[in-house]
Specification:
The protein is globular and about 50 Å long. The protein is of the alpha/beta class and 260 residues long. The chain has one domain: NAD(P)-binding Rossmann-like Domain (Rossmann fold), CATH 3.40.50. The termini are far apart. The longest helix has 29 residues. Pathway: Carbohydrate degradation; L-rhamnose degradation.
């Protein structure tokens, strides 16, 4: 197991890529604090998504707790670290994954919507990384932080002018944090998922024409699944990547390099 005995926090862990990360961490031997935000789960059938993830982790033989809170609030990051200390005795791994992408045109983008996306995607990542890093530093044993950026950090999107800058910011945050935290033995990396079938991009992957177009654009011939990203996150969080920091790894089936 790549993460045997490790204590992890996963933000945005109740659905999609976050859920995949939580379960993969458990398969690799980690105990997990599952962060979720009840407001983000409204309108979805799985209203008890976080509880289900906890049950699945426990079925894998690992410990888990669910902690509710909007990651845009800096106090939530502090609470997640405190919960990990209370439940597991500390923090070894952070997967900063929480993010939102409410598609909207640029010219009439409401200021409130822009601010919300920035506060969740970039502000939330900043404060989660800061809180976890402070605890890792206090423990004196180093640690690993992996943030979920996006292929959108590298390409534009007409309906994502509020989203793509935040994902570029997460990528940049990990580069700078790698420098700032390297002396403390804390590694910081990011993953850049491409077309992954989750709730956040359901409009894309459920449209047959767009799905067919993207499937043909992706050299590996299929949309990604949350597990595809989760396995890479687990690798970067593990000692297998002990000399990897400041890196950004595309997990996109080759989509970015295929310009046809």
């Amino acid at each position: 197991m790549l993460l045997e005995g490790k204590r992890a926090i996963v933000t945005g862990g109740s659905r999609g890529i976050g859920r995949g990360i939580c379960l993969e961490f458990a398969r690799q031997g980690a105990d997990v604090v599952v962060n979720y935000y009840a407001g983000a789960d409204k309108g979805f059938a799985r209203d008890t998504a976080a509880d289900e993830v906890v049950a699945e982790i426990e079925a894998l033989g690992r410990r888990a707790i669910a902690v509710e809170g909007d990651i845009a609030d800096p106090q939530v990051s502090t609470a997640l670290v405190e919960a990990a200390i209370d439940a597991f005795g500390g923090v070894d791994v952070l997967a900063s994954n929480a993010g939102i992408c409410p598609f909207h045109a640029f010219l009439d983008m409401p200021a409130e919507l822009f601010k919300q996306v920035v506060d969740v995607n970039l502000g939330g990542a900043f404060f989660a990384v800061q809180a976890a890093a402070n605890r890792m530093n206090a423990q004196g044993t180093g640690g690993a932080i992996v943030a979920t950026s996006s292929i959108s950090a590298l390409v534009g999107g007409a309906l994502q002018t509020h989203y793509t800058p935040t994902k570029a910011g997460v990528h940049s945050l990990m580069q700078s944090a790698a420098i700032a935290l390297g002396p403390y033995g804390i590694r910081c990396n990011s993953v850049m998922p491409g077309a992954i079938a989750t709730d956040i991009n359901k409009d894309d992957w459920s449209d047959p024409k767009k799905r067919d177009y993207l499937d043909k654009r992706i050299p590996l011939g299929r949309f990604g699944e949350p597990e595809d990203v989760a396995r890479v996150v687990a690798f970067l969080a593990s000692d297998m990547a002990a000399y990897v920091t400041g890196a950004a790894l595309l997990v996109d089936g080759g989509l970015f390099v295929n310009l046809q």
